[in-house]
Structures are given as structure tokens and as C-alpha cells.
Amino acid sequence: MPTISGSYVVPTTDTSPAERSLADLAIGASATICEVDAGDRVKRRLLEMGLIPGETVRVSHIAPLGDPIVVEVQGYRLGLRRGQASAIHVTDHAATTAGGEAAAITSDQAATPLRRIGLIGNPNAGKTTVFNALTGLRQRVGNYPGVTVERRIGHCQIATETCDIIDLPGTYSLSPSSPDERIAADILRGHAAHEAPLDCAIVMLDASNLARNLLLFTQAADLRLPLVVGLTMTDLAHRRGEVIDTTALAALLGVPVVPMVAHKGHGIDALRDAIPHARIPVTRPWAPRGELATAIDTLAAKLNSAMPSQAHSKLDAERLLTGADSLIDHAKDGDERTVTLVEHARRELHPAIDPITDDVASRYRWIHSARRAATTITAPGHASLSDRIDRILVHRVLGLGFFAAIMYGIFFMVYYVAGPFMDLAESAITALGAALFGGMAEGALKSLLLDGVIGGVGGVLVFVPQIAMLFLLISLLEQSGYLARAAFLLDRSLAAVGLHGRSFIPMLSAHACAIPGIMAARGIGSRGDRLATMFVAPFMSCGARLPVYTLLIGVFLAPHGAGIEALALFGCYTLGIVMAVVTAIVLRKTALNEPPAAFLLELPAYRPPHLGQIARTVARNSWMFVRKAGTVILAFSIILWAALYYPRASEQQINAIITAEGMSTEQYAALTADDADPASITTANSERLATITSTISSTQVNGSVAGRAGKLIEPAIAPLGYDWQIGIGLIGAFAAREVFVSTMGVVYSVGEEADENDEQLHDRMRSDTRADGSPLWTIPTVLSVLVFFVIAMQCVSTLAVMRAETGWKWTIAQWAVMNSLAYLMALAVFQIGSALL
Amino acid sequence: MSDWQDIVALSITALCLIIVVWRIRPRHGKGCNGCSHCEH
Asked: Do A82 and A227 reside in the same domain of the chain?
């Protein structure tokens, strides 16, 4: 049956009745692949992942909901959906494979100095570890495919030259299927805008998964770029009973090969020494032969005669015919002549030869012969530790139980174990504020420092222990290799709401901060899945919402018992997830109504976490949080302080308040002077002084710039149960959510540092009333504010990243949708709540 | 308003306004606005 691929039809052969699809196999069943029957892009990627005709494949796990499945192929484990597996036809009979002969091509070794060196490899092959070791930088390292989502540059001394080392996103192939893979392929091929071509490339090969890694080597070798190979994870391969003879491998590949155990620093110096000896491989043993080679020559000639202005090499023609260069891209660019010529050439070869399968299969044939020649198997056939762990963690029933337990553990650690550390941080900040500014003379500067700086920044810094705990746990999961399993377990559920298994990582990261969440979505291949994930990631309750939740729940719901408090916090997180799910479903049925994408995810071997790297990740992220508090939040706090402090209440207004309490202005001045005798303040005076101070504060806030702004928006927010004071908090929160807590502190004029645990702030908030004397902070009001904060898009930094990733259209849509939903939901909660309670 | 403390406080506020506008401005052609939220 023909399959539709983009704008053209790919003819495929019928399968014989004896064949069945990979999706039909039970757990533990093995079979031999006969054919991959899918559209060009998916077909090529499935083949490149090692699912080639003749290869033996075994189903090792099935996800709890029956989809996706994990198969073992080429010595590694790959998660894929049943839909894709059903495109792979298998039989129970093993096929034979033929070895390839070397096709020699002329060598033209580079003579130019090596100034720009690319670092490429499969996802999770250890590139970033090597990059850090070579450049002395400290980039994030994970055990999850897709940690590097954009290229990064560092410098390294190679011989006498200082070179740029460019760490490229991990890619399985140079026929990209996601934006991060495209970055890698474009830079490597010298097609990237604003990027000078590379002088040489280091290809990182994972020794524990050599076959699939070598496929990328064959494609890199085709680029005629000097290469050097870093063979990582040799320790892991050794434990699996495989010993690789690097000298033999270097001879087969035609480039220097350096064995490495990158995380222990072994082999880094040798790699640095080998870089100047990088070579362009002389032979191209995987080159097409026979009828396919003739067809490529004919196509190159036709392309050159049809478009004489563009020089088409044989390699260009080969890439087009074998689908390495996507025809869909050419069709999109309006290059109809190329599309027509290539489709014609494919039709002429059909059905005897399928260029896509032939290309990848011929590469794998050479790879297997090279691997056999260079590898000695010392202990075959025993189940690895990862296999044994996966029997439990990816089990159809137990797997979900473990997943739930791990998520609960994260929640528990972040909220309860980090608590005492937060109390410690709070005491330290309070003591620091008192020690630094307590003795200053009364005036604008003291107010700025205590209310603006300590009140604003201190309230946010209290959260450093919690943020550090969150990053610690996410790093541990990521480095261990568990996150890939979580994506596998959840793919079916996420696919049901229009997302993708890979959406799990962005969504989990977004619980710390939406920005790394949105960035991590780059690894998702399909546009629809990627945009939907980016769109809904900010619904996840991020670290900045925590102070608001803690303040409101702590002040108003804690008196109802710890159970209600925990339930409210859990409810906030759940509501965020529910809103994300509903929005994703609606998006995929309307603006992003595209067919579901492929799910191909490697399940890497479990690795013990590298504590040094985790410590660095936690320290860096905590420092970033502190820096944000020290820059943007500090600046916002001071601006809000000024908006609440100016214009000052006039002397006449203050005098009127003092005399209204039956005190003369002279008496007031004497009692509030710095050198006032405490013995002269009677109980009656003390009460009157407190009333005067409070009335002056509220008159001040009423007349301030922020007070007037709050009143201006009051008609709009009154239906939600908010008064102008909450309005001021909302305005501030649209810069950064944490600012709400510090604004409440300043609005309620506590005159001291305010954080979410400040008892004075709590009392003032609890006793605040509306103009008619009824309490302001009723349960419906509190719930309404919580719901608003869960749903609203209030973070300028997130919007800026969203715009950079997707453009204005999606950013504006996201802002409008999230805030409209927040308003409507908060309105419903307040109105329904008020009617019921 | 003539108090020197007010003048200093308002100058600091003006400086903060400049910092905020500078930090959150969109930067064209980059994958990140350098807001320091994450390491990218």
C-alpha cells in the first residue's frame, strides 16, 4: 500500500502473508526485520536507529497502557509507539547479511589550521562531559537524551593554537528530525547562518552502543571533514563483556580513535593530542554500488543539466535519492525540479531497489563487519544491571507504582525536608536586615532598605533551600537515566491529551521554572507536540508561585488544619496540570490539529550519579536564583517601594490624623523622637500611637502612585473579590510572581522586613476589611487569588523566551489564553464560593 | 521632597527602572534573553 509522505507518494511493496508487524510481538519475543514501511522521514529514522532488514529485534518491555513498547536492537533499548512498530514487518526467520567492500575515494587531507572544532555524537554519548573537560567550562550533563539543546562554544589550547570547541546538540543522524538535531546538522555541514564552517570534528562514540553510534560516524565521514573519534564509556562496554581494540577500529575508520572514560577524566589529554592528527577517511566502504550507484550518477547528471547554476556532486544526488536530504524541505522551498527528478529516479528503481533502505542497510553492513573485526566478546549473554532494574521500573504494573512513589518523594522532599533550611535562611535574613539597617535614622533611605530591599529580596531568598532541593532531585533522576523511563511510561497518557512522551521532561522542569521547561521542548521532533508542550509548560506551578501559595495557604488555610493546608497545596499543583491537559487537548483539536508524531526514545543504561556534577548543577541553579533575586527582583522591589512611598502624605493630612486621636502634634513628635524616654509612653499613649501609625500608613498607601493604580484597576478585579490592595500586588506580580509577597508586605505597612512567614503581616492580612467593614480575605477570596496565580501568565522572562523560541504570534496567544482563563476561573471560584459559603 | 534622602531614594529607583528595562528586553535572534533563570 502506498504511504503519503509530505507532498508526494512513496510506493511500497506488499508484505507476504507469513510476515507480521513488530507491534504484534509479545514481551520477550524475537524476530527478524523484513521491511520498514513508512513515510520517508520516519522510515529513514527507524532505519538509522538500527531497525534495518535482516536485523534481529526483541520486545523487552510494554508500557503500562500497552503503548509504547521497548525493543532491543543493535545492542541497545529503544522505546517506540505501537503505531510505528506496526510499520516494521518482521518474520521469525533470521536473514543473512553480506559484508561490504571498500569503495576508495581520493583523500584530500586538510592543511588549514584547526580553529573551529565541532563536537558531535549521539544524544547521551558524553559530549558535554568531554566539552567541559576540554574547555574547563561547567555545562550541565545528564543521562537523558537531549540535554544539549543548543550549540555552546568554549576555548581549548590545541598544540600552539587556541581553538573554539563547539558542543553540538546530540543527534542520531545528519538527516535531522527535530530543531536541535537541525542545529547540529547545519553547523556540521556548514549551512548554518552566521556560523563559520568547522575545520574539524570530534565524533564521540558510545562504546557500549557502538553499532548505532557508528552510523553517525559514516554520515560525518561523508562530509569530507577531518575527524577524530573519542570512544567513550569503554568502562561500561567492558562491564558488558565487550573489549574494543582501538588500534583496529582506527584502521577501519581511517581516523584517530581515542579510548576515554570521560567522567573520570581518562583520555582527555590523549584526545587533545589527537586533534591535530584529525583525518578525512580515505575510503567510503558503505558507498552505494551496482544499480543504485548508476542511478545516483544519472541523477547527478540530470540535476546538473536541469540546474547548471548549482553544482550537484554525486554525494548531493546520493543524499537526495536516499532521503538523507528531505524532499519535503525541497518541496517547501519551491524546488519542484529537484523533487520531480528525484521522484522519477526512485520510480525507475522501484520495486527492485529501495534507495532509503539500501543506503542505511549498507552502512549497517559495514558497521557490523567493522564492529566484529574490532570487538572481542569476553562474557556474552548475561543480563546487565540496567536490564534487571528495568524489569521493575518499566514493569507494566510496578512501573507506574514506582513512578508515583518517586514523584511523591520529590514533593515530600521539596516541601517538608527543605522546610527547616528555609526557617534557617529566614532567621539569617531577618538578623542581617536588623544588623545592617536597624540603627539608621528614620527616613526614605531606611524605608527603602528595610521595606524595599530586605522586604522584597529577603522574602524571595528564603526559597533558595527549596529551589536547591528541587534541582538536586531532578539532577539525580536525570543523571541516573530514570527520566527516559518516565517519558516511556507516560507516553500513552500524554499522547491521549495531544502531547508526547518527551513532553514529560519540559513539564517536570517547568515545576522549577518555565524557562528551562520551554527550552527543553526543543528536543521534541514534531512541531505540533513541541508548540503544545511550550504553550502549556507555564501552567505547571513553578518555584516563583511557591511563595504566593505558602503565604496565602499559611495565613488563611492553616488554621483549618494541616490536612486542609496540604490539600490546598496539592490542589494548586493539580489544577496547573489539569489546565495544561485541557489546554493541550483543545490546542491539538484546533490550532495544532496535526497527525501524531513518532516516538523514538533511547533508554540509556543506568549510571551512578556523578556527585561532583550534581553539586555543581545545584550550586549553579541556586546561584542563578539568588542572582535573579539580587537583580531583577531587587530592582522591582525598589520600584514598587517607591510607587507605594511617593507622593508622601502632606503635613496637614498627618496633623489631622494625629489631632483626630486627641494628641497634639508636639506631643506626637516628642513620643516618636529617637531619644524619647520609653517610661513616658503610657499604655493609652501606646495604643493611640499604634492607631496613628496605622492610619498614616494607610493614608500614605491610599494616595501613593501604586495605591492610585490599584484603585484604577479595582472595578475590573472587584468581581473576583479583590480590592485595590490586592490589585497592587497583582500589578507587581506581572513582572515576577514572587513580587506579590513583598508587595503585600509593603502594602500592609508592617514597616519591617516582610516574608511569607512574617507574623505581623499575617495578622494585618487576616484583620483587613473592605470599605463596608466585612472581612476582605474570605475563603472564596483566598481561593480566587490562588486560582489566579496557578493559571495566569505573569512572568516577563518566560514570555521573552517564548517569543525567542516561537515568535510573537504564539507568545501573545499564550499570554492572552492563560490570563483570560485565570480571570474567568478566579471569577467562577469567587462567585460560586461566595454563593455557597 | 527636598530631603536629601528622598533624592537618593528616587535616584536609586530610577536606576532600578533602567536595570529592569535592560534585563527583560527581548534580544533578537537568540534562543534566550539572558534572564539568568537557567544556565542556557
From this structure: no
Does the beta-carbon distance from A445 to B30 stay under 8 Å?
no
The answer as to whether A794 is a domain residue is no
Per-residue model confidence (pLDDT) at position A722: 92
Domain contains A750? no
Q: Which among A139, A645, A797 has the least Cβ separation from residue B37?
A: A797
Per-residue confidence (pLDDT) for residue A591, from 0 to 100: 86
User: Where in A350-498 does DSSP place strands (E)?
Assistant: 375-377
Distance CA(A50)–CA(A299), nearest Å, equals 27
DSSP conformation class of A594: -
CB contact under 8 A, B24 and A796: yes
- Determine the distance in angstroms separating the CA of B29 from the nearest CA of chain A, rounded to an integer: 7
Domain that holds residue A434: 398-543+576-597
Q: Please say whether the beta carbons of A37 and A357 come within 8 A.
A: no
Same domain, A271 and A125: yes
Q: What total of structural domains would you count in chain A?
A: 5
| Domain of residue A233, CATH code | 3.40.50.300
Question: Higher pLDDT residue, B26 or A295?
Answer: A295
Residue among B9, B13, B38 minimizing CB distance to A516:
B38
Whether the Cβ atoms of residue A646 and residue A704 lie closer than 8 Å to each other: yes
Residue A317 CA to residue A222 CA, distance in Å, equals: 13
B27/A804 Cβ within 8 A: yes
> What pLDDT score was predicted for residue A4?
35
Q: Are residues A581 and A436 in the same domain?
A: yes
Task: Write out the three cell numbers for A678.
Answer: 520609653
Q: Which of A168, A445, A509, A628 to mutate to test the interface with B (most CBs of B within 10 A)?
A: A445
- Asked whether residue A433 falls in the same domain as residue A531, the answer is yes
Is residue A303, in this structure, part of any structural domain at all? yes
Which of A445, A447, A624 lies closest to B37 in CB terms?
A624
Strand A20-21 vs strand A88-91: parallel, antiparallel, or unpaired?
antiparallel
Distances (CA, A) of A295 to A349, A353, A355, A639, A763: 8, 10, 10, 70, 83
Task: For residue B32, list chain A residues with Cβ-Cβ distance below 8 A.
Answer: 515, 519, 801, 804
Nearest to B24 among A638, A797, A805 (CB): A797
Residues A78 and A124 placed together within one structural domain of the fold: no
Please identify, among A225, A244, A277, the residue that sits at the C-terminal boundary of a domain: A277
CA distance A547 to A248: 60
Is residue A196 one of the residues assigned to a domain?
yes
Domain that residue B4 falls in: 1-40
State yes or no: pLDDT of A146 exceeds 80: no
Number of domains in chain B: 1
Cβ–Cβ of A804/B33 closer than 8 Å? Answer: yes
Is the per-residue pLDDT at A829 higher than 70? yes
Residues of B at the A interface, defined by Cβ within 8 angstroms:
1, 3, 5-6, 8-10, 12-13, 16-17, 19-20, 23-24, 26-27, 30-33, 35-40
Residues A38 and A141 in one domain: no
Domain's final residue, options A215, A248, A277: A277
Contact B9 A444 (CB under 8 A): yes
DSSP annotation string for A655-672: HHHHHHTT--HHHHHHHH
Per-residue pLDDT for A526 more than 60? yes
A724/A87 Cα distance (integer angstroms): 61
Assign residue A68 the CATH number of its domain.
2.30.30.90
Whether A233 and A349 share a structural domain: no
Rounded to a whole number, what is the distance in Å from the CA of A664 to chain B's nearest CA?
A: 24
Return the number of CB contacts < 8 Å for A and B: 95
pLDDT > 70 in chain A, percent: 90
**Residue A219 in grid coordinates:** 554520515
- Dist CA A399 CA A486 (whole Å): 9
Closest residue on chain A to B7 (Cα): A444
Q: Could you report the per-residue pLDDT of A168-222, keeping only the tens digit for each?
A: 888 888 888 777 788 788 888 887 767 788 899 999 999 988 988 999 999 999 9
> In this structure, are A332 and A424 located in the same domain?
no
Contacts of B5 in chain A (CB under 8 A): 443-445
A794: which chain B residues are within 8 Å (Cβ-Cβ)?
Answer: none
